[in-house]
Amino acid sequence: MRFFTAAVLGLFVPSLAAASSITSQQAVPADFKPPQVFKNTNLVRNTNLEKSYVRETINVVVENVDKSPQSDYYVPFPTDVFDRVGGFEARDKKATDKGRFEVAVTEPVPSNGIQYFIVHLDEPLAPKAQLTLGISYSVLASLTPRPATIQQNDKQYLTYSFSAYVPSAYQTVTQKTKLKFPSTDVPDFTETDGLKSGADPERKGATYTYGPYETAKVAPGTEKPITVRYQFTNPVITVNLLERDLEVSHWGGNLATEERYWLRNNGSELENQFSRVDWTFSSYQKAPTSAVREITYPLLPGSSDAYFIDDIGNVSTSRYRPGNGKTAANLELKPRYPIFGGWNYSFKVGWNNDLSRFLRKATSGDSYVLKVPFIQGPKMNEGVQYERFVLRIVLPEGAHNVRYETLEGANSNGLPGKSQIHSSLSSFKTYMDTLGRTTLTLEVDSLTDEARDAQLIVTYDHSLMDALRKPLTLFGGLISVLVAVWFVGSIDTSIKKR
Amino acid sequence: MSLNQVWEAASATPFQPIVAKDSQFTIGFSLLVIAVITTGLFGLNRSLASIFTLGIPASLALGFGAVFTICAAGVYV
Asked: Which domain of life does this protein belong to (chain A) (predicted)?
């Protein structure tokens, strides 16, 4: 289990500033190439195109071909793609319950513009020994709508380009790529010539398989470009920035959540002007559309006081189904206008929950432990990608010794490794605060809605005196006034002989 | 000990607020009323003894009353 301390802080603001953790990229020489100590005996890449982002899972049998045990496996990406890789993780496929391997990142190699994820194996792999690695990640903003402009009721098509030979830092003996499309409507795809005998790709329903290829004599990094174009008449929902605030109130017994979205549809743009009549017709028929018509937003049971506000004000075209306290609540949002390709929409939603479900008093001392969803967000069949996600946990005033951890399971939780979650502590001053509330900020670039089930645990210390700070401040204020009134009243100001 | 183990170990002690959400307004507003009345009584008899008998209770009632009332209004401090 990954465990790390975000920081230890006292009540003093200067110590907060020093408490931020900064992630770093490893410097590499100008002509860096990973040492050829591994061989990929067999590699299978599964590329899932059912959502509006690309989800790839690579299962690879790795063999140590060096004479000494090795523990660093390099996974290359071009620099422009590297920044859009989200939720990268690697596990031992035969022991997934052991959790993910530690992953570090390198700076771009100046000579070829390649950046590497370095998977640190828990135990070095002995010479000639084999290990099955399961590597999974999402690539954001890698699908291009073609045609780039369409009529309002037209089908939308996306293209995706990749290399038939999986980019690897090591020699690969056999490999294949399985593509899963959202439907069988795939009008264009590259057919390879001479890479293997027989038809390539092999098609079976909505699954296309490129390979298997015998690539033992092919140099690592060799590319064979493939492009596929497939129907995806759904919005390509891209959240440029999501700010999520969780505010813990001990006095109120409340966990307040607010999420602010800056959203864009990266699908095909409209060729002509928007037609309200056509839109009403297609909405009535519930026809598939490339626009965002409605956003469904599941909330935890017991959520209350939901609101939906955009730049203009309250948006009345929303419906909140509170559930019965045990079943999940649902927030159904209809944006002020349908969001077609290239259109933007920014809004915020918020709600309250009882704190007792999320906060427990730890068995020792004045410690509290908070368990909250890392990210909630809309649940859409077509998926949602987040280019940047900022989570702020606003703890009660005076909270200190803050630590956090993301929960790991046997499967991917959609989050990147700890090296790619930037954390910092700060102070946030709002109503009735004197010192300001301790705020833990976590920032992640390139995230997908796959992380919806991820959980975050935060522990902090909060003493009785910290808790009493607000009422005692008010107490001090009024008692000072009353003492001053008594004192001023007791001064003898009469005119008489002394 | 991982933080998840800390969470599991604390399963018997869920956080309970001093005042439940439903009673925040009643208690908070009552305390504010007490604060106003006792401050008024202090105003009628401004003596050192009144600071202890009326001033301190009034200030305490204001301190806690204001915190509960602002929570009842939806600003969870």
From this structure: Eukaryota
